Structure prediction request, 276 residues.
Amino acid sequence: MVGRLFRAALGGVVIALASAAFATDVPPSNPNTFKRPVLEYHQGQYFRWSAPRGWTMNETTNGVDLFAPGGATFVSSALLAGGFGEVTPQQFLAMTMQQVNPSARVTNARRLGSQPGILAPWHVEEYEMAGSFNGIPVRMNATVGVSSAYGRHYATMTLYQAPAATWAQDRTWLPGIALSISVTNPRQVAGADRVMLPRNNPLDNSGLIESWRRKGLSEDRISQAQQEATMGYERMQDPHTGLNYNMPYEAYDAGAGGYRNPMRPTELLRRAPTGE
Prediction:
């Protein structure tokens, strides 16, 4: 139950982050000149995420950083639980960017709709930024959610960056990587195992437990469908190795009747089971 409460606290704001990432006007990519990459799934100690092959990955208890070769293109997701005092989304962004890219400056900001939380609503804001990386002009998008109550605050942020020269194309698929980052170890992520949370001691009622299990499966299916529709990627699986992929819709082979396996093009992938 603690795990479900933790995910519920973040569920609404994660959907808001995903919606914000795709809400801006993005010119459609030309299939003759640009293809979105296939994303391979990875499971860490605290999170699960997807990224193109060849990217560098770094996971901590508070988030995941994913870097393309060269480092100018990257995706980052951060989570802070139980910080002292109250902060605004703008303050949390400023503190984080001092470590991520001090050259960043906000060029546009907008407030998004608040999302429900366990103790207090999540206040969500989206920021467009510009800066440089090793002398290369870059553009950034960050969406920050903050929930404060009783002298403590919780914050989450998704951020993606790319060279300004390729920003219009890269922003059509970088949000999909950010959206794929999800908590899989809610008992330890962000130090949750060191925060005193209410205990749940239900009666030994097998019927009640089974009903909650089925409810969870339904929520997982809805969440997966929302994620795929927002990203423009479909979650598929190699039936032989169990490796999961996020396949861009445009990679669908109508002649073959499915998505071809990136590792073995003569074979088709199958749809990944719910929750994987």
Q: What stands out?
A: Residues 206-271 form one domain. The mean pLDDT is 78. The longest helix spans residues 206-231. The chain has two domains: 2-30+56-194, 206-271.
